[in-house]
Amino acid sequence: MPSSKTPLPSASSVPVAKASRKTARSAAAPVAKGYHHGALPEAVLAAAERVLLRDGIAGLGLRAIAREAGVSHTAPKHHFGDTTGLLSELAAVGFGRLGAAMRAAGEGVADAYLRRKAVGAAYVHFAHAHPAMFSLMFRNELVDMRRPSLARATAAMMRTIVPAVGGEPDEAGTEESSAATERPDPVTLARTDAMRITAAWAYVHGLATLLIDNRLRGVLKVAPDFESPLALVDVVLREVDMGLDFSAKAPGGSRGQSTR
Q: Model's pTM, two decimal places?
């Protein structure tokens, strides 16, 4: 009885492929997953973020990221130069998101004190929601703060903090626009503005770091009023000021001066 299966051709009967150079090149080193060449850097950055979330900062190697993106192991180096370059671009993405979150939190809040609280809370909540990304953003041994995209992203974030803590607003920095992110560092700050920014940034960054490093569990053991570290931090953000009063002992300061 004849078989219903179609016989497979023998190896000798298969014609040698006369592939075009383009086809051979694609088979040898594919730009995988159908990425257009212009979209490849974004695809690699997205893959790097997936590796960061899955494996942590320690897993962020060029080969691991290339595997995740489905591209040749040389593709990330071609677009970003080296690991530092790639991680710097990923950190720039993080700072862009952080700045956008803070701007959104302060938007439409007319009272300066409440706006400062909202922007500070957005900073801490971003860290809590994205601990791996937040940690990478401040790892100076892994990123190059001189890289233009990262410098622009951090400057844009700082231009959001300046008006929130009572400094002179940098109008371009209050909008998420190409003009805002392309501008260089803000104009020179007054002495008191520099002090306010430093105090406010230390306040929210310290809370964020304590939160994502799980350093507040000990406090919760002896403070039953708080159900979680985040609940404790939220109360601190709501009820404790950022330490922006200036002492009369400080040159140029006056006792009881506050930005509330």
A: 0.75
